[in-house]
Amino acid sequence: MPRVLRIINRLNLGGPTFNVALLTKHLSAEFETMLLAGVKQDSEESSDFIVHNLGLSYVLVPEMKRSINPFQDLLTYLKIRKIIRKYKPDIVHTHAAKAGTLGRLAAMHERVPVIVHTFHGHVFHSYFNFVKTKIFIAIERYLAQRTSGIIAISDKQKFELSTTYKVAKPKNVRVIPLGFDLSRFQEGIIEKRRSFREKYFLTEDEIAIGIIGRLVPIKNQALFLRAAALLQKQSAKKLRFFLIGDGEDRKLLLHLCQELGLDHTYFPDDARKSVVTFCSWIHEVDVAISGLDIVALTSLNEGTPVSLIEAQAGNKPIVSTRVGGIENIVIAGETALLVENFNEKDFSNKLLMIINDSDLKNKMSLQGWNLVKERFHYTRLIKDTEHYYRELLAANN
């Protein structure tokens, strides 16, 4: 029975946690799996509950943190090597950058037969300055040469890894999209919608536009707020805006609301009706999506944004920036309207198109579920991953 040691940076709320949890839970009995995880940042929401709700446990590596710290990173590397020596995995599968670096180095030095890495995104633009970015690309190229297989989560990401940044040869990159249990987004929609809208004092004649994700620079929620300010002047309809998530940029974004003249509240501290509501984290994201009318995304860079998969599973139209792997998970003009060049006027105009055209809104809503229900279901993820594992194990023999 092949043993798989799965390593993830940290269990923060987002797509990678769902991915590793479902793979750990649902791989066939042919495989045995151990899950290792680092520590989330203080500004992030824990996703331990996702793992525990599946009846899983994991090994915590408290030294593994997102920030670069040579001493902590060395301790992490040594601890992973020790775990590898004890567990004796046939496959080490790392997820995301920090786990991918330290986990693969440890696996290489312990001579693990098969080493796999999944890029859930990448940090090759919009994260760091030119020098740091070049260093990270060089590190990834070095690791890729010593990795049995690399997984990209979209065709666009594979192109970037293999062609744009030349991290690995195309033949060494396998596209395996993320997988989720999306059925809950089709269940109890009416009751979930009522629950969300009652909690946030939404009347049925108000249009709720939401954005879901960490409040951090790469997510670019300032664009969402600037578009909201424009929409307030463009539309006579009653509009409400919701930021679902939390993080280091919250104070900056609250201050931007003040500059833009947008009535706003941080709901956990001040539970009142306002034009812009900062909700902080909502674990039951299916309830939130049921309550919203439009879902937005303003990121500067993305791999496969889970919020847009979930929005389509919940029959919601989308307005998003055209970045990363987004074009691999939506149909432009049919399930989403995409915005070029991070232009706030274009973003507000796209939102206005959906607000003013109920036929367009309904058409986009209906298309979403049909697009994602099988393409991003976890059973497809499990099947594709198991097939890749068998292929890599056979090549190693």
Number of strands: 14
What is the name of the CATH class of the largest domain? Alpha Beta
Helical residue percent? 40-55%
Give the CATH H-level superfamily of the largest domain: Glycogen Phosphorylase B
The main sheet comes to: 7 strands, parallel
CATH architecture of the largest domain: 3-Layer(aba) Sandwich
Q: What is the succession of H and E elements?
A: EHEHEHEHEHEHEHEHEHEEHEHEEHHH
Strand order across the biggest sheet? 3-2-1-4-5-6-7
Average pLDDT level: 92
State the distance separating the first and last CA atoms.
Answer: 15 Å
As for the CATH topology of the largest domain, it is Rossmann fold
Enumerate the spans where pLDDT stays under 50 for 5 or more consecutive residues. none
Rg from alpha-carbon coordinates:
21 Å
How does the overall form come out from the CA principal axes? Answer: globular
Search tags:
alpha/beta, Rossmann fold, seven-stranded parallel beta sheet
In words, what does this structure look like?
The protein has 14 helices and 14 strands. The chain is an alpha/beta fold. It folds into two domains: 3-181 and 377-396, Rossmann fold (3-Layer(aba) Sandwich), CATH 3.40.50.2000; 183-372, 3-Layer(aba) Sandwich (Rossmann fold), CATH 3.40.50.2000. Helix 6 links the parallel strand 6 (149-152) and strand 7 (173-175). The longest helix is centred in the C-terminal third of the chain and has 19 residues, at 378-396.
